Amino acid sequence: MYQPLVFCVKLQLHFGGDIHEISVPAYDGAEPTVNDLMNIIERDFRVPRILQNLVFHGQELHPHINAPLSCFGIKNLGLIRLVGRMAPADKIQQINSQYSPHSYQQTSYSPQQQPVVISTAEQYLSYSYPQNRSVSTQYDPPKEQPPPTPDKEKLPERQATPAE
């Protein structure tokens, strides 16, 4: 009888200020891929694939979706950082379908459009900035001169009151 061989990598996932232990399986003797990891994260942590940003030792994993985890040097109990936002369970499919399957970051403009340039009068001002009072803890000297300090010779001496 044929039994499928299951290969599993146990990882530590740093997400939301906590470290979670997850298992990433792969079937038929194949190594787990980044795609398998992203599926587990989407299922267990409700972070849509499109909003996942996976980092291992400074390397971003999400652009290399079909690469095995071992090609990044990920071994058992390796620590992976997940940067992403959770979504309600019923919205995950909708969020993923809004983006193309190979687009990981939405661009703010399409390449066919020409950029719109808005000119303002402020662009043509010279580079002299008015000196404003500081808002921070810096010392601003007073603008008015303080009153002159009286001479000690002109001050009347205080009379000591006798203690009774």
Number of strands: 5
Give the fraction of residues assigned to helices.
Answer: 10-25%
The SSE order reads EEHEEEH
Q: Profile the largest sheet.
A: 5 strands, mixed
Organism: Adineta ricciae (Rotifer)
Protein name: Ubiquitin-like domain-containing protein
InterPro entries: Ubiquitin-like_domsf
Can you walk through the features of this model?
- With 164 residues, the chain is α+β, with helices and mostly antiparallel strands.
- The protein has a domain at 6-98: Phosphatidylinositol 3-kinase Catalytic Subunit, Chain A, domain 1 (Ubiquitin-like (UB roll)), CATH 3.10.20.90.
- Helices cover 12% and strands 20% of the residues.
- The protein has 2 helices and 5 strands.
- It has helices at 34-45, 92-98, and strands spanning 6-15, 18-27, 53-56, 59-60, 78-83.
- Strands 2-1-5-3-4 form a 5-stranded mixed beta sheet, covered by helices on one side.
- Strand 1 (6-15) and strand 2 (18-27) form a beta hairpin.
- The chain is rod-shaped and about 110 Å long.
Compact summary:
This protein has helices at residues 34-45, 92-98, and strands spanning 6-15, 18-27, 53-56, 59-60, 78-83. With 164 residues, the chain is α+β, with helices and mostly antiparallel strands.
Tags for this entry?
five-stranded mixed sheet
Topology:
Layout: E1 6-15, E2 18-27, H1 34-45, E3 53-56, E4 59-60, E5 78-83, H2 92-98
Parallel strand pairs: 1-5
Antiparallel strand pairs: 1-2, 3-4, 3-5
